[in-house]
Design brief:
Chain lengths: 434, 397, 546
């Protein structure tokens, strides 16, 4: 009881405090325009994506708060400009334009889905803004104005498959996903990868479901059937957020345990597990670049401060949050290096910037505008956290253009001086369109 | 209805002229203020406002198309967004083909999303979209044919009222799911994006934006005149009669379903044109435009502005979308759904005739003989005899 | 070839299973004979390196050590109660009381060293432990456990388990367990090297009679170099099973369809009242379902906090609370908004859509945008086999619940006074009013009833779907389709509509895939409405248009 209601009160309190802070900031801007730098926050606060994106908005506000307490950037305070694109893709483009053209923000942190990123992309290119995109995605993109701090498929999917093959002896694969671009691309890459490792075509089953699919009986039964062919089977799940809960519930109901058919997911993190009874899921896996359970002092410190800021000592942290934190710190460092917030100076300055990540190492912004990351494989525990069962020994550089796809195997991205190209074709020696 | 049979009114009433003056005035004034005033001048209209206004105008045209069938024929289509999206996709496919070899993979023919999903050749339904006239034709034909087929089946079977609304919703939902599928060849949920130019002009250039804005304003004005012409004509009188008493019209010897199909097709084509103008200004078209919630929102714009007034529909679209733009920024952001929801409830309860309808009422109270107002314009609910304001008889089982 | 570690690991599991078995079974004698427990300090030290390979080696070593402590240590490992101190390299077991005992000797430790860490377990270790426990359970006194263990041995097909199996088979009295053990034994024989062809064919026959998915897996594992006669027997058995399973799979699809249909029925039945009977296009219906699900969440939270023992009854407690709560919200909406809109059916769509936005955002503000956890009571988890049908308890209960709700609603409308008044008011309001029925009150009650039913549907749906502010949105379109397909104003229509859409969906899914199946279904419904514009169970009345 107390738990619930204090939560509601806390939310309301936070909202009021946030609103007050914004109101004050809004009043302060004209008077002290010289002293502040505006930071745009473009995450859905209502609609279907609010479930994931609200936390990232809080993360950016938290980082701004921390940075201001430490003296701001270039001696100026940071002011957040929060807008709500309401999970509506055209509205993302409109809001991005508002942030860049009207509010004249120095940088934008935002987007979750690929389609929202695609929708704001022309705006950022046209108005020369900087976007930090914090979510794992399908790759096949490298743009001058976007910095990708989430994982590319080779920083998440391929190590996860390797782990299952080597440690669990998996020989038969179910690639199950929601029918949209991220799962399609990831599964194409994985299919090519598995085949290159000698897995036969009949040992790969690919299955797509609509968004928000809630009746998994048939598909789980099919997986069970596919898994009874005498070879160790695993499911690689690129099922989108909302459909995961009923999927896992059905797995539990049909008695598929992780020791029989393990499921490794790329879109299920601490935040998603908070809404599921995790007892039947113990042992199923997820691959990310960060888990809340990473046992290093930097992470413990971050979790403590975050919980203090959000005033909730049960609030979980997750991978896209870490990506937001890394992106934010990189931007601050690059601005200080460039001595200005002008995108034309900050964009080149960002390449090569290295900041501590929350898993005890450093992440570096590479010339392809993606960052280096360690890959962690975790098994779900009964408390909704992950037990990290494997961590890649070194950092992995993103392959933004997958070598396993026909169209992109000859492409590379390098945004440094001579090349300055996001899609350089090494075969023709030309930069994409030119 | 008695006044409807008196003097045949002018094509455009007084308020119609005001409306046209405002729309066309904006088409002239906004580009001038954008180009000729200094950026720091109080009168300056920044480019970002221009493209915002351009988007509102396409929504206004879409709302107009809904008002034509809802306000004058009584067809509540919960799938109007589908026609809008089809028009948008037709334009988007043209814009995709215009990219040519400038896509990230440099493939001269295939759009990017086909390249990285290992498509080998262009699907047949993409043929011809590299030619603008063909694409422009498809902008009206694709929604028009869907409306023709759907309407012909539905109206011939006398599917009316709620049943019709629900199956139009099912139609747009089915299209949503279909366009979501990557196998369909329309780019899946990412849709079509990364456009470069239109008819040889850079799509991101300010000049192109202004031109598109002016075109949207002109399209809205023409759409208004067309709708006005339709509802003024004998054809329109039959439509209104169908709205108010379809059976009686049928018994009088009219083929009601044919009239409805024509209105439905015209409305779908208007929506398609709106979609085609919308896409280059927004820069993306994807299946979310098919979502049933979008179509409901269009209905709400019309209701807010005033059903059966045409001007009201356009006004409602602009007002609601401006409110959306305003409330989704800054401190109000987390609460805008409360306001939007509250607005719908308040309008249906306190302004059942919408803003324009209420204004007409107010004016007719002040001057009892209005020049151009006809009650026949207004929605049937407003004219219903008091005893119709009761639930329709339906046994419980 | 590409996954080299596998074979050796499999071997480890077998060794471990047998070793543990031997250790426990023979231990008393061995201990007497030797007088002292074997030294297990080396494997124990391996538990402290925090590496899975070492943990597995340690498990193997422990298992063959014959130490009396081994079984206890393995059990502790499985439950996550095995700890070690990185500083002192001491390995401890946490007892149920919360204290610690030394793993090697079993003597209590007064003060646990600081910085204790749990020995970590992953799927590999878990599987090894499971296989070991499976072999152990073959001799468990509980027949249910023995049955389960026989199944595990059959699926694992460890040749090394054969002696243990033979021993267990010799002692077994329970016929059911005995046949399961025979089956497990046959499964092993099929793949074992050096078995005579006659034995192998006999084994294939035994397994073939079982006729299920597991048997199929066993039969497919017949070695490629087996004699032609053996292969032919296996193929014949496989064909037989596949034919059998294909027939059963039709039944299975029907079952899935009925189960999906009952979910649709639950979601739509409240709408059959507010929309079907009252004519209100209630777009906020989905949100009533969502409120019911959130009520379940709140009830479970309260129970977890104040009386965890009641958890299994939480859903039963939530049902009346959800009914009353969402019913009251429904009455509130009817009194403040809907009652001004009677007769303007299409405008109720706008107002209720506005209400649905407000309710969604209100829940998002109060509970946060993320999913909330609603647990399943124990009587709703698990599955049982009926022939070759796999039936999960959760789905079974939802079907039963949907039917109960349907019957209760039908009875309310048919047999109670309020039901009579509802029908009277919706049939002829003014006549009803002149007969002395308070029509306003009846309107409010009818809308409240519809909303309350939606609320209890939410209790059931919380078991299979996300409890998030978006819950209602995902059911609203399907609900309207069900009501319209079945025929507005007819509860039986809603039942038949829900079941036929559910079964059609599940029949289409295996052929067309989930996405295309759903699209095909929508098209079918659209076409059907053309054929019967008033739905499946059209009302026969005098009105030519409604």
């Amino acid at each position: 009881m107390s738990n619930l209601f204090s939560n509601a009160r806390r939310m309301a309190g936070r909202a009021v405090a946030g609103a007050a802070a914004l109101a004050i900031a809004g009043v302060a801007v004209p008077a002290a325009a010289q002293e502040t730098i505006k930071v745009g926050v473009l995450h859905s606060l209502s609609g279907t994506m609010a479930i994931s994106e609200t936390t990232l908005k809080d993360t950016v506000l938290f980082m701004i708060d921390q940075q201001n307490a430490a003296g701001g950037v270039l001696g100026k305070k940071l002011t957040p400009v929060v807008v709500d694109p309401a999970s509506n893709w055209p509205l993302f483009a409109e809001k991005a334009r508002e942030l860049l053209a009207k509010e004249k923000v120095a940088v934008v942190f935002g987007c979750w889905t690929s389609v929202s990123r695609k929708s704001v992309l022309p705006v950022f290119k046209e108005l020369n803004g900087i976007l930090f995109y914090p979510v794992q995605y399908e790759g096949e993109e490298s743009e001058r104005n976007v910095f990708y701090t989430g994982a590319a498929p080779n920083q998440q999917a391929i190590p996860a498959v390797d782990y299952l093959a080597e440690n669990e002896g998996v020989k038969r694969w179910v690639l199950a996903g929601t029918d949209y671009v991220y799962p399609r691309t990831t599964n194409k890459i994985l299919e090519a990868y598995l085949k290159s490792k000698g897995v036969a075509a009949e040992d790969i089953m690919i299955n797509y479901t609509p968004f928000g699919h809630s009746d998994w009986q048939t598909i789980v039964a099919d997986i069970k059937k596919f898994g009874s062919a005498g070879k160790k089977t695993a499911v690689v799940s690129t099922i989108n957020g909302d459909a995961n809960v009923p999927f896992y519930k059905e797995l539990g109901n049909q008695g598929i345990k992780a020791t029989d058919i393990p499921v490794v997911a790329f879109s299920v993190g601490e935040e998603e597990l908070a809404g599921i009874d995790t007892k039947p899921l113990v042992g199923h896996l997820a691959a990310w670049n960060y888990f809340q359970s990473v046992d290093v002092p930097e992470n413990a410190d971050f979790i403590k401060k975050w919980r203090g800021y959000i005033k909730n000592d049960k609030r979980v942290t997750n991978d896209p949050m870490e990506a937001t934190v890394i992106g934010f710190n990189m931007w601050v460092k690059a601005v200080e290096k460039a001595g200005t917030t002008d995108p034309d100076a900050v964009i080149p300055a960002l390449i090569g910037v290295s900041v501590p990540n929350l898993s005890g190492g450093f992440s570096t912004m590479m010339p392809n505008h993606h960052i280096t990351k360690p890959v962690l494989i975790g098994e779900i525990k009964d408390d909704g956290q992950f037990d990290i069962v494997e961590q890649t020994p070194g950092l992995i550089v993103a392959e933004e253009w997958s070598p396993y796809l026909e169209g992109s195997k000859d492409l590379i991205a390098d945004w440094r001086a001579p090349m300055n190209c996001g899609n350089f074709n090494v075969k023709t020696g030309k930069c994409g369109a030119q | 209805m008695s006044t409807a049979t008196t003097t045949p009114p002018a094509l455009l009433g007084k308020s119609g002229l005001v409306f046209l003056a405002v729309v066309l005035g904006a088409a002239v004034l906004v580009p001038l203020l954008n180009l000729l005033t200094a950026p720091d001048s109080a009168l300056h209209v920044p480019t970002y406002v221009v493209s915002l206004l351009g988007k509102y105008l396409t929504y206004a045209l879409l709302a107009l198309s809904v008002d034509l069938i809802w306000g004058y024929v009584g067809i509540l289509s919960l799938g109007q967004g589908a026609f809008f999206a089809l028009g948008g996709y037709a334009m988007g496919m043209y814009l995709m083909r215009q990219i040519g070899p400038r896509g990230v993979y440099g493939d001269p023919v295939l759009p990017d999303f086909m390249v990285f999903l290992n498509w080998k050749e262009l699907p047949w339904f993409w043929y011809g979209f590299d030619m603008f006239p063909f694409a422009a034709l498809m902008v009206v034909l694709a929604p028009g044919i869907l409306a023709l087929v759907f309407g012909w089946f539905a109206f011939r079977s006398r599917v009316t009222g709620v049943y019709l609304s629900i199956i139009t919703q099912a139609m747009t939902f089915a299209l949503l799911l279909a366009f979501f599928r990557n196998d369909m060849g329309f780019g899946g949920n990412n849709g079509l994006t990364d456009f470069k130019d239109i008819l040889g002009f850079n799509i991101q250039a300010d000049g192109t934006r202004l031109t598109l804005f002016v075109l949207s304003a002109v399209a809205l004005a023409l759409g208004y005149v067309l709708c006005r012409f339709l509802v003024r004509s004998h054809f329109g009188k039959v439509l209104i009669a169908i709205r108010d008493a379809e059976t009686r019209v049928r018994f009088t010897g009219y083929r009601a379903e044919n009239y409805k199909v024509v209105a439905f097709v015209v409305s779908a084509m208007l929506a398609g044109v709106a979609g085609a103008l919308y896409v280059p200004q927004v820069g993306i078209i994807n299946p979310s435009e098919f979502s049933p919630a979008n179509s409901i929102e269009i209905i709400v714009w019309v209701a807010v502005g005033g059903r059966g007034t045409l001007i009201g529909a356009a006004l409602g679209a602009v007002l609601v979308n401006y409110a959306k733009t305003y409330f989704t920024s800054g401190m109000l952001a987390p609460y805008w759904l409360f306001m939007l929801g509250g607005l719908f409830v308040a309008v249906t309860l306190f302004l059942p005739k919408g803003i324009v309808g209420t204004f007409y009422d107010w004016r007719s109270r002040r001057s009892p003989a209005p020049a151009d107002l006809e009650p026949a314009d207004l929605a049937p609910a407003d004219l219903a005899p008091p005893d119709k304001a009761l639930p329709e008889p339906k046994p419980a089982e | 070839m590409i996954f080299p570690g596998l074979l050796s690991r499999l071997g480890c599991v077998l060794l471990l299973a047998l070793g543990l078995l031997a250790g426990t079974l023979m231990l008393p004698r061995a201990a007497f004979a030797q007088g002292a427990a074997p030294d297990i300090s080396a494997p124990l030290a391996q538990f402290t390196t925090d590496k899975y390979d070492d943990t597995e080696t340690a498990l193997n070593a422990l298992a063959v050590s014959g130490s009396p402590a081994a079984a206890g240590i393995v059990a502790a490992l499985a439950d996550g109660r095995l700890f070690y101190s990185p500083a002192t390299k001491q390995v401890l077991i946490r007892t149920a009381a919360g204290g610690y005992v030394d793993a090697a000797g079993g003597q209590p430790v007064a003060e646990a060293p600081p910085g204790l860490k749990a020995v970590r377990v992953n799927n590999r270790i878990r599987r090894a432990v499971e296989a070991a426990s499976g072999a152990l359970a073959l001799v468990s006194p509980d027949p249910a456990k023995r049955l389960e263990a026989a199944g595990a041995v059959m699926r694992a097909r460890d040749e090394a388990a054969l002696p243990a199996l033979d021993a267990a088979l010799a002692k077994e009295a329970d016929a059911k367990v005995k046949s399961a053990l025979t089956l497990a034994r046959a499964s092993i024989l099929i793949g074992k090297a050096g078995v005579s062809d006659a034995d192998r064919i006999a084994a294939i026959e035994t397994v073939g009679e079982e006729g299920n998915q597991d048997a199929l897996a066993v039969l497919r594992s017949v070695p490629a170099d087996a004699a032609p006669a053996v292969k032919a027997a296996a193929n014949a058995a496989i064909d037989g099973i596949e034919y059998n399973l294909a027939i059963w799979s039709v039944g299975q699809n029907v079952w899935y369809g009925v189960s999906l249909g009952s979910v649709l029925l639950l979601a739509a039945i409240g709408l059959a009242i507010t929309f079907g009977v009252m004519g209100v296009i209630n777009m906020a219906h989905g949100e009533m379902v969502m409120l019911g699900a959130y009520t379940t969440f709140v009830v479970q939270e309260l129970i977890r906090t104040y009386n965890p023992a009641l958890f299994d009854a939480s859903l039963l407690i939530a049902i009346p609370i959800a009914f009353v709560f969402t019913g009251l919200i429904g009455i509130l909406i009817e009194r403040t908004v809907i009652r001004f809109l009677y007769g303007r059916a299409l405008e109720t769509l706008l107002a209720t859509w506005g209400i649905s936005l407000i309710l969604q955002q209100a829940i998002r503000t109060m509970f946060g945008p993320t999913n909330r956890e609603v647990g399943a009571p124990s009587w709703m988890s698990g599955a049982f086999e009926l022939g070759q049908l796999s039936i999960t308890y959760g789905r079974l209960w939802i079907i039963i619940f949907a039917m109960l709700v349907f019957v209760a609603l039908l009875a309310t409308l048919r047999l109670t006074r309020i039901g009579l008044e509802m029908r009277a008011v919706t049939q002829n309001r003014r006549m009803a009013a002149s007969m002395g029925i308070r029509t306003n009150w009846v309107d409010a009650m009818t809308f409240g009833l519809g909303s309350g039913i939606a609320g209890i549907a939410g209790v059931a749906l919380s078991q299979i779907d996300n409890v998030s502010p978006n819950l209602g949105q995902s059911y609203i379109i399907d609900s309207f389709l069900v009501v319209v397909f079945g025929g507005v104003g007819n509860l039986w229509g809603t039942l038949v509509g829900a079941m036929s859409l559910g079964i059609a969906n599940k029949m289409l899914e295996p052929y067309a895939g989930a996405v295309l199946g759903k699209i095909a279904l929508l098209v079918i419904v659209i076409l059907f409405i053309q054929k019967r514009p008033r739905g499946l169970f059209a009302l026969k009345g005098r009105a030519i248009e409604t």
